Amino acid sequence: MIEFHQVSKQYGHDKSALSDITLSIDKGELIFLSGPSGAGKSTLLKMIAAMEKPSSGTITVNNQDIGRLKSSGLPYLRRNLGLMFQQQCLLNDRNVLANVMLPLLVTGHEKADAQKRARAALDKVGLLDQANSEPQSLSGGEQQRVAVARAIVNRPQIILADEPTANLDRASADKVMDALHAFHGVGVTCLIATHDEHILSRANRVIYLERGRLAGGAA
Amino acid sequence: MNQWLRLHALALGDAFRHILKTPGSFSLNALVVAIALALPFAGLTVLENVRPVSEQLAVQPEISIFMAMDTSRERAAALAPQIRRIAQESERSAKLEFIPREQALTLLKDRTGLSDAIAALGDNPLPDGYVLKLAGFQNASEAGRVDALAVQLKALPGVEYVQIDSAWVKRLAALMHVLRLALLFLATTLGVVVIAVVFNTIRLQVLTQREEIEVCRMFGATDAFICRPFYYTGALLGLCAGVLALGAVAAALQPLNSAVADFARLYASEFRLAPLNLPNTIALLIISAGLGVFGALLSVKKHLARLS
Q1: Which of A63, B83, B92, B93 has the fewest CB atoms nearer than 10 Å to its CB?
Q2: Contact criterion met (CB < 8 Å) for B212 and A83
Q3: A195 touches chain B (CB under 8 A)
């Protein structure tokens, strides 16, 4: 489903974020991406979402070489992805429900249908009662769960989560991870970047990155 | 089609939402654009009021044909059929009147009040002549075509001089043309000002909504989806400014009309400046909104490319 072939990423002349990465991820896998800060975990996730371009090598998602994708094709690639990054990027000028509806409205869904599906997604992460709250009135854990609901509301084939439990207490982190495990349970491919040892203990497969290179788990 | 309408309704709603978040800033921008629009709108209002007046003027050019002093009365009178033929060939209905030199002298004395001075001349200095009154001209600019007719008349034997009295009509037509060109230049210049103001307004909005744009892109929004609300904001800014400018011009007509009425009364006229008619008003509002969209288009293309 996702293939990296000799992928490298450099910023400027001397800063190498990723070097010679070759790995394969199958449909329906739950994979954790681990390594110290600055190992290149976020860069790798951003490359799958075509938010960063590789300096060399090829990345294919659903048999599509995303390096060759035109800018007009990027939105259609991203519609199959559920993205969660370190900053939740919730929009504070609208309530929780409107934030979760956004990926559906972007793709032209009817407002009533979008509302229904957004409520269902919030229900799955246990936040339906906060649908009309302002994002800034929620705790960090709740905001992260709203981000999970927003990532899965358009039923993506792949979820890419970058440090989804960073800065959360254990109980909140477990709730976020339970939600992600639930989506993996229904066949969604999940790729989660983390250096939280507690979360890693629940992993089937872990890919280790160190200084931009694979240190284990690629196969 | 439903999805297309839905996306446009969503974009329009987004545009309104962002405008309502900063109503003061939007109002001030609309005011600046309205000031720029008010001047050409006022010019157009005046021109539209003057145009029918200039067209309704009695445009019946007169051609005075003066015979040479040595042309006999018989020869002069014999020219009448030829003059009529030339007038008919120009496809204009015409009224021809022969004025003997004695009658011309009497008219001169009566109309100028210079009878004593004319009597001092002794002999009658005026020649026999014709006055050809042409009809069927629709407006001032058309009356200018009488020049060609005058050239033919001057070529007739015994004719010394041909005078056309429609010069003032041509001057008016030329003045109207100059005013139209000046208005076009003014409108173009101020149109650029409007585009620049909208460009800057939308630039600030793009920067303010940077986070929202990035989130939308993250979830697969196309460039069209992201740009649409900004186009609507530009259109709404242009439209509101157009309404303000038209309102300001209409309000300014009230005090102006009292001064115009005093002036027109001197010429026994009931002339008043009226606001623009409905089709012109709608056209100006469409142009205002169009300028807004164009400014937004330029701004969004430039600044979204930077965000990417």
Answers
A1: A63
A2: no
A3: no
